[in-house]
Design brief:
Elements lengths: L23 E3 L5 E2 L12 E5 L2 H12 L3 E6 L14 H22 E11 L4 H12 L4 E8 L14 E8 L15 H4 L13 E4 L2 E3 L11 E2 L5 E2 L5 E3 L3 H9 L3 E2 L9 E5 L11 E2 L1 H4 L2 H12 L11 H11 L5 E4 L6 H8 L3 E6 L3 H15 L17 E7 L4 E3 L5 E3 L5 H11 L3 E2 L10 E2 L4 E5 L3 E2 L1 H11 L4 E6 L1 E2 L4 H7 L3 E5 L32 H8 L1 E3 L5 E3 L14
Protein name: site-specific DNA-methyltransferase (adenine-specific)
Keywords: Methyltransferase, S-adenosyl-L-methionine, Transferase
GO biological process, one term: methylation
């Protein structure tokens, strides 16, 4: 019988935005770097990106696909408090569409051994789990970490919520085997004793039996204790190793038979030989922090009057980044909030990219990162990692849309684009790497060692095309993007100039994207009120795709949206 594939469905699932892959523009006045090197491991090429996070993720895709080792996101929890006046099914559908569109790009950005960590609560956790199964594959689910976020019960409820979830997914099924171990905790060290005075120091005994499912005959034997007592394997179990290997352990004094020498054998594990301990899926607040600790950290940085209701403690991010990465690996957070991910990654010697749309990107995140770089932020994990400052980041914002309408309704190149911006934009749209040559004026980017691109707003004549073809030569090819070419038809040009491919701008890209969409977020406060009577699917779709711009103008979008809620979600 053929298995039926189960999928999560919601209103508008089939709607997908045609995203414009925009270029990123640096604002050097907002970039920040240490005045001098503090250490050899200083990292200066971190990125803080201001703008809609879906567009920003798309902007990163070409350059960073397969390069991000760890993604941490803290999306809005969709508690329903912001949707009091709206149909629950519609609200839920909007949230799922929002997450699906972003998760698909995030997956492409992750390296093969990369991992995604999502903090979420019970309102959407289990729907999000099924959605992630679809995007990443059910076999790539690693764990549902339970984080104890509170320090005491919520007295308002008879059964109070004490935890959040951290869903963990990999790009490949065996990715979790690359996780780093944790340092042996002080509580774990207390389990190590040395009752027999072993010269190798303190040790703890571990079980020496195994499951019989894949056991061989060599694992079924009787062990005789030093005092003569015989120990066959326990019923339904076998010994974990063969008798030959057991005898080797006996010669090395690595087997413990209890204080009287007659107990069932157990293996001695020495503290001095442990490099660390494996993590598990229960993270208590004494290990990784809690809500009150996080708020105290934020209040110390910004004062009590700050916009962050649910920040995450630095110790929680430290645990995640430690497990998932090594120094110099790349960490991404597309819901930056107060900037905790970048601050912790920076202190831990990881490269980072953060994306944030809210104005607190300028009023809070940048000042926080400046304190980290200057070494004046000694809160959070600073003392634990002996942070002294150093490194830096570059601040970017999304370029405006490439195609706009002129006063007569014609599609034209946005006049805000200069020649270099236009060349870089078309390189991104045509999957070329933007890299202007200092030798050849017509080499503005490349897709291979012999394939290049040239962008101009000029109308090229046959004579100009001939010069280009001659300079490119027979062993190379060139994509020519121009406003027009005159004196020759496309079919004739292909025959006469076989090393050139000709495309007209902006016609060559008109059908590819939703031009002019700067905001794929949804500001719930600006939604129209729901009708008192039940709405149909078509009506729900209409509401889902209607929003107001920050200036109050109502506009229509063709895809599920939601980002304004993300601004204070960290």
């Amino acid at each position: 019988m053929k298995k039926q594939k189960l999928e999560l469905t919601w209103i508008g699932k089939e709607l997908r935005p045609k995203l414009e892959a925009r270029i990123l523009l640096e604002d050097a006045a907002r970039s920040y770097h240490a005045k001098s090197r503090v250490g050899e491991r200083d990292i200066f090429d971190n990125q803080l990106i201001f703008g809609d996070n879906l567009l920003a993720l798309k902007a990163l895709e070409q350059e960073y696909a397969g390069r991000v080792k760890c993604v941490f996101i803290d999306p809005p929890y969709n508690t329903g408090s912001a949707f009091t006046h709206y149909d629950d099914g519609l609200e839920h559908s909007i949230w799922l569409g929002l997450m699906r569109d972003r998760l698909e790009i995030i997956r492409r950005l992750m390296s093969d051994d990369g991992s995604l960590w999502i903090t979420i609560d019970d309102n959407e956790c289990h729907y999000l789990k099924v959605l992630c199964d679809e995007v990443f594959g059910r076999g790539n689910f690693v764990a549902n970490v339970v984080w104890q976020k509170r320090t005491s019960p919520d007295n308002r409820l008879r059964l109070g919520n004490a935890h959040d979830h951290v869903l963990v997914y990999g790009k490949s099924p065996l990715m979790h085997q690359t996780f780093n171990q944790l340092q042996v905790s002080e509580s774990r060290k207390k389990d190590f004793k040395n009752p027999d005075g072993d010269q190798r120091g303190a040790w703890a005994s571990t079980d020496f039996t195994g499951m019989t499912g894949h056991a061989t005959k060599s694992q079924f034997y009787t062990i005789v204790s030093p005092n003569g007592k015989k120990h066959p394997p326990p019923e339904g179990r076998c010994w974990a190793i063969s008798e030959d290997n057991f005898n080797k352990l006996m010669l090395e004094n690595r087997v413990w038979f209890g204080a009287d020498g007659n107990a069932r054998p157990r293996l001695k594990r020495f503290l001095s030989e442990m490099e660390g301990q494996n993590a598990w899926s229960w993270w208590s607040n004494d290990e990784v922090g809690h809500n009150q600790e996080a708020k105290k950290e934020i209040n110390t940085l910004f004062g009590a009057d700050n916009p962050f209701d649910t920040p995450k403690p630095e110790r929680l991010l430290q645990r995640i980044i430690h497990l998932a990465t090594n120094p110099n690996d790349l960490v991404l957070d597309s819901f930056a909030g107060s900037g905790t991910t970048g601050a912790v990654a920076h202190k831990m010697g990881r490269r980072w990219i953060m994306i944030e749309l809210g104005e607190h990107c300028h009023t809070h995140i940048i000042p926080r990162l400046q304190k980290v770089i200057d070494g004046t932020d000694q809160g959070g994990i600073s003392k634990a990692v002996d942070w002294q400052g150093g490194g830096g980041f570059r601040y970017y914002h999304l370029a405006p849309t490439l195609i706009i309408k002129d006063r007569w309704g014609n599609d034209i190149i946005n006049p805000e684009y200069n020649a270099a911006m236009l060349a870089e934009a078309l390189c991104k749209l045509e999957a070329f790497t933007y890299a202007p040559s200092e030798v050849h004026w017509w080499q503005q980017g490349y897709s291979s060692e012999t394939d290049f691109i040239y962008v101009t707003t000029q109308s090229l004549s046959v004579a100009q095309l001939q010069v280009l073809s001659d300079e490119v030569g027979a062993h190379r090819s060139l994509l020519v993007c121009c406003s027009a070419f005159r004196g020759i038809k496309s079919s004739e040009a292909m025959v006469r100039f076989p090393n050139l491919s000709l495309k007209k701008i902006p016609k060559m890209v008109l059908s590819r994207c939703e031009w002019g969409h700067d905001d794929y977020s949804l500001n719930v406060a600006n939604l129209p009120m729901a009708e008192p009577t039940p709405v149909s699917v078509s009506q729900a779709s209409e509401v889902a795709n209607t929003r107001k711009t920050p200036r109050g103008k109502v506009v229509r979008d063709d895809a599920p949206l939601l980002d304004g809620l993300f601004e204070a979600s960290e």
